TrEMBL record:
Function in brief: Tetrapolymerization of the monopyrrole PBG into the hydroxymethylbilane pre-uroporphyrinogen in several discrete steps.
Keywords: Porphyrin biosynthesis, Transferase
Cofactor binding remark: Binds 1 dipyrromethane group covalently.
Known pathway: Porphyrin-containing compound metabolism; protoporphyrin-IX biosynthesis; coproporphyrinogen-III from 5-aminolevulinate: step 2/4
Ranges for domain Porphobilinogen deaminase N-terminal: 7-213
Cofactor(s) annotated in UniProt: dipyrromethane
Sites bearing S-(dipyrrolylmethanemethyl)cysteine, chain numbering: 243
Coiled-coil stretches: none
Major enzyme class: transferase
Subunit field text: Monomer.
Enzyme Commission number(s) of this protein: 2.5.1.61
Species assigned in the record: Chitiniphilus purpureus
Protein name: Porphobilinogen deaminase
């Protein structure tokens, strides 16, 4: 197969998205010397609409649609995404060519005054706009007040520093990639905040008809991460996963086997159901469906009904 001479990566223009795109650019240029890789920066709807919480404006798809348009029109060859932002069902004609090795998958506690969630006095204001983080936080720390917080990682930190919140919750992966790991006061344990499907992993999206490109990108794939993310996304897909429902899914790999944990709740924290199961990496998708079914029988079916009926 002849190597292409150049590739264009479509990316959002937030500092985190640009870091991620440059990371893949660097990987490609190291792996394929002689290949020229350039970035095509784009602003997505999700970047433009900052004053409404994501679950109200239609969620994840908003961050990827413009990038997919660039792939369709041939203006770019691949798009680099945080897997957490990729819808559970890709539109027809697109494929994930590779899922890279996962960075720290956990949520991080960031505060200028307190060391951890457990140190926060009653009534402290915690910033997050993720229904997943909110539901888990309210269920486990009902004495805390949750307030919405949106914007890029930098914007969120600035709002914390301006005194609008006592603490905020962010993905550890984003902070670490941006060189802001020292802002993390503590990692939040999996029992306090189970991560989102795909959190901490990067995905490379291409047009499904670009078979030669898929081959070129395949070595970026990390098999263990891909199995984990496949299980997490299968679970989420079965439950209608989007950021409109408070849903967490997290898998860990050990010697070809996965432990997958999932959790679904109501945003006010009044209900939270949890399930887990083990299975082989080869059957990651089936494991995701299995834990989804366990969650449904444990009460998730009822929770999803309530959420669907809510205004
Ligand atoms: N929702 C935005 C988003 N998408 C991916 C990350 C972090 C990086 C990752 O999970 O790979 C973040 C920021 C955050 O949640 O703090």
């Amino acid at each position: 197969m002849p190597l292409p001479e150049q590739l264009v990566i479509a990316t959002r223009e937030s500092p985190l998205a640009l870091w991620q795109a440059r990371h893949v650019q660097g990987w490609l240029q190291t792996r394929y010397p002689g290949l020229t890789v350039t970035l095509l920066g784009m602003t997505t709807q999700g970047d433009r609409i900052l004053d409404v919480t994501l679950n109200k404006i239609g969620g994840k798809g908003l961050f990827v649609k413009e990038l997919e348009q660039a792939l369709t029109e041939g203006r770019a060859d691949l798009a680099v995404h945080s897997m957490k932002d990729v819808p559970m069902v890709l539109p027809e004609g697109f494929a994930l060519a590779a899922i890279g090795r996962r960075e720290d998958p956990c949520d991080a506690f960031v505060s200028n005054r307190y060391a951890s969630l457990a140190h926060l006095p009653a009534g402290s204001v915690v910033g997050t706009s993720s229904l997943r983080r909110e539901a888990q936080l309210r269920a486990r720390f009902p004495q805390l007040t949750v307030r919405p917080l949106r914007g890029n990682v930098g914007t969120r930190l600035a709002k914390l520093d301006a005194g609008e919140y006592d603490a905020i919750l962010l993905a550890a992966a984003g902070l670490k990639r941006l060189g802001l790991g020292e802002r993390i006061r503590s990692g939040i344990g999996l029992d306090d905040s189970l991560p989102a499907p795909g959190q901490g992993a990067l995905g490379l999206e291409i047009r499904a008809d670009r078979v030669e490109l898929a081959e070129l990108l395949a070595p970026f794939n990390d098999a263990a991460t891909a199995a984990c993310v496949t299980a997490e996304r299968a679970l989420s897909r079965r439950l209608g996963g989007s950021c409109q429902i408070p849903l967490a899914a997290f898998a860990e790999e050990d010697e070809g086997f996965l432990r997958l944990r999932g959790c679904v709740g109501l945003p006010d924290g009044s209900r939270l159901v949890y399930s887990e199961a083990n299975g082989s990496c080869a059957a990651a998708e089936a494991l995701g469906l299995q834990v989804a079914e366990l969650l449904l029988t444990e009460g998730a079916a009822d929770i999803l009904d309530q959420l669907a009926g809510a205004p």
